[in-house]
Design brief:
single chain, alpha+beta, Growth Hormone, Chain: A, 2 domains, 4-stranded mixed beta sheet, 22 helices, 51% helix, globular
């Protein structure tokens, strides 16, 4: 008789346990392929310990998503209002079905990732394609679809909804319940995907930035009504003005994943961890330039300069195949992609000559672009690269349940979240033999370059 449960050792969560059918999913080709997809692309060339893969991350997301589900659907943690609105949490059969769906969605959420994950996805898939579409196609595919549907009795489209969320499964209809479950995996505020990658990347890279008290955070998560629409617009210290005698209750909003007031500081720590990890690790300039060299190599090495969107070809394409390709190309000048491959293999990456400075923004709104365009004219287009991530978004808003039971917007009560910086960068790189010359040039010409750009922008605006 086979074991009912199977254990996998994990450096972050100690043990991850799976049923026999879940282990069949884990042993399937789409999941096993993730053993050969680095979680952080070529980051190991900067942080040598960052060699972990999407495989163990997927196990970690399943573990955390399950913990969150068990907490927020526990009867003691639900109000009568939520029980009435979400009948699935009071029906044991429905609850257990969706628990299984959630676990498989969490386990499978990354199976569509290309080699080296996000390093070159946007420019190397056909227009309109994202890795999430490949994930959906693989979940419906023969091997995985057969296990989910025939052996586990799960609807593949239910798994797809929770694995991708409304944004990337917009062709499917979501119930309120399904929307909340998708938030557990890929939500901006408390998604298990985000929690695990921060903890795991921090551990393997050997940095402390990504750590936060996820035990306390998960224990205080709840399904809560969103605050009334106007409340999100308040900031700490806003005066609340109500007409005398007006006892009308605020209108009910759609429920969402929120937190008890006692866990708010751990939520703030999560958001700060994300900011520091992006600022210090994910946006590290050498990490970024290696991504650019990898993208340049793949554009020349791949057939037609793009990845295939066919499931069979996707499952054959791994980091190992790409590494073998760029190591061979690095040694042979006749192989497509030789130059960027050589730069990766021999660590001859382009060097940074410019990073956005607050003083430069006072002169022109796009200083990095101005330096890039001038550097191309000075040193040749083939010798210069520009990499930019503008500030966008901010801390996500979520409901917070105060000790007296009232619901408020996190942005209305958390000064920390209101002041949370948004990570961004603006880098210009140059071929290493030109580095010193370029540094001297930018030091003497920076102001002229930026002022010239500002004059050009001003003329265009008139």
């Amino acid at each position: 008789m086979s074991k009912q449960f199977h254990e996998v050792r994990d450096p972050i969560h100690a043990f991850v346990r799976l049923s026999t059918n879940e282990r069949k999913v884990l042993n399937s080709r789409p999941l096993q392929r993730l053993r050969y997809i680095h979680q952080l692309a070529l980051t190991y060339l900067v942080y040598p310990g960052a060699t972990h893969r999407r495989f163990e991350h997927s196990l970690g997301v399943m573990e955390l998503a399950t913990r969150i589900f068990d907490v927020v659907t526990h009867q003691a943690n639900l109000t009568d209002e939520m029980r009435n609105l979400l009948p699935e949490v009071t029906n044991d059969r429905d609850r257990l079905y969706w628990r299984d769906v959630l676990r498989m969605a969490a386990l499978c959420h990354d199976i569509g990732h290309l080699p080296f994950s996000h390093a070159a996805e946007k420019e190397l898939l056909p227009a309109g394609w994202k890795h999430e579409q490949l994930t959906a196609a693989i979940i419906r595919d023969g091997e995985l679809g057969d296990i989910l549907y025939n052996k586990m009795k799960l609807q593949p489209d239910d798994v797809i909804k929770l694995a991708l969320g409304q944004k990337d499964a917009h062709n499917l209809d979501f119930s309120t319940w399904e929307t909340i479950l998708a938030q557990i995996i890929v939500g901006d505020a408390f998604g298990a995907d985000r929690m695990d990658y921060l903890l795991r990347d921090s551990h393997h890279a050997g940095v402390a930035y990504g750590r936060f008290d996820h035990y306390r955070l998960i224990d205080t998560l709840r399904i809560l009504p969103s605050p009334p629409a106007g409340e999100q617009e308040q900031t700490p210290g806003d005066d609340e003005t109500e007409e005398a005698g007006d006892e009308t209750e605020p209108s009910f909003q759609e429920p969402a994943l929120g937190i008890q007031e006692g866990g708010l500081h751990t939520a703030e720590a999560l958001m700060l961890a994300r900011y520091f990890m992006f600022s210090q690790l994910y946006f590290h300039p050498i990490r970024r330039i290696y991504d650019i060299h990898l993208k340049d190599f793949l554009k020349q090495w791949l057939p037609d300069g793009r990845y295939s969107t066919g499931v069979a070809e996707h499952l054959r394409m791994t980091d190992s195949k790409v590494i073998d390709g760029f190591l061979k190309a690095a040694q042979d000048t006749g192989v497509p992609g030789h130059d960027p491959a050589r730069r990766i293999a021999q660590r001859e990456h382009f060097n940074r000559i410019y990073q956005r400075h607050p003083d430069d923004i006072k002169i022109t709104s796009e200083p990095g672009q101005a330096v890039f365009e001038a550097a191309k004219q000075k040193f040749g287009e083939e010798n210069v690269r520009w990499d930019r991530q503008p500030p966008k978004g901010g801390a996500p808003d979520f409901p917070v349940q105060s000790n007296d039971g009232r619901i408020a917007s996190s942005m209305a009560i958390s000064e920390t979240l209101n002041r949370l910086p948004v990570p961004s960068f603006d880098y210009v790189f140059v071929e290493p033999t030109l580095h010193n010359k370029a540094l001297n040039w930018i030091q003497t010409k920076r102001k002229d370059i930026l002022e010239s750009q500002e004059e050009e922008d001003h003329e265009k605006a008139q």
